[in-house]
Write a structure and sequence with these properties.
Layout: H1 14-85, E1 87-88, H2 92-101, H3 105-124, E2 128-141, E3 145-157, E4 166-179, E5 182-189
Antiparallel strand pairs: 1-2, 2-3, 3-4, 4-5
């Protein structure tokens, strides 16, 4: 049968109305939630990016400091080699002062202890040493201490060589300590010395 316009419809079910109402408000609530979460997520991403950048910068800066310290220690080892291997038996006081000025710790004590013996040996033997070449390389270290290998080419003249310079080579392993910003030799191992 056909329905007429004056037919009465049943009232809508209340659950159906609630479902329709929640469906229409749900997208608005989700978009409000997204609007609140997006800035928070952005802040978290920015904080994580900043923290990562700071971490990697500090790692780089620490490694750069170690590389710089290694280069400074190597240069100090080369300078000290010049001081140690250049001497003339006629002028030993400035030589001893220079060697001790670049020394610390065990090596300084050892050199001070042997200084008079060396003076007698060099004077009696009329020993003169001149550096011709120095090569240095830092083997390991950090900003406080470093180990370096040093190879010194030198000419030595003495009574034994009848005053004629003879070429020689001295190889040393040195430990350097950073003392108040100066790299000083604290240990020295050279089979040909002392």
């Amino acid at each position: 049968m056909a329905k007429h316009s004056n037919d009465v419809l049943d009232p809508p079910d209340s659950e159906a109305v609630d479902d329709l109402a929640s469906d229409s408000t749900e997208p608005a609530t989700k978009s409000k939630l997204r609007a609140r979460l997006l800035p928070a997520v952005g802040v978290l991403l920015l904080a994580a990016s900043t923290a990562s950048a700071v971490y990697f910068y500090l790692q780089y800066d620490e490694k750069r400091d170690i590389v710089d310290a290694s280069a400074a220690a190597s240069a100090a080892a080369c300078d000290y080699a010049q001081e140690l291997a250049n001497f003339d038996f006629n002028t030993l006081d400035p030589y001893f002062a220079g060697v001790l000025a670049g020394a610390t710790g065990e090596w300084k004590t050892q050199f001070e202890t042997r200084q008079n013996d060396l003076r007698n040996l060099y004077t009696q033997g009329q020993v003169t040493s001149k550096v011709t070449e120095v090569q240095c390389a830092t083997v390991s270290g950090d900003s406080d201490t470093a180990q370096a290998l040093v190879v010194i080419g030198e000419t030595i003249s003495s009574v034994a060589t009848e005053g004629k310079p003879q070429a020689g080579q001295l190889t040393m392993k040195v430990t350097l300590d950073n003392v108040d910003g100066r790299w000083l030799v604290s240990k020295l191992s050279a089979p040909q010395m002392l």
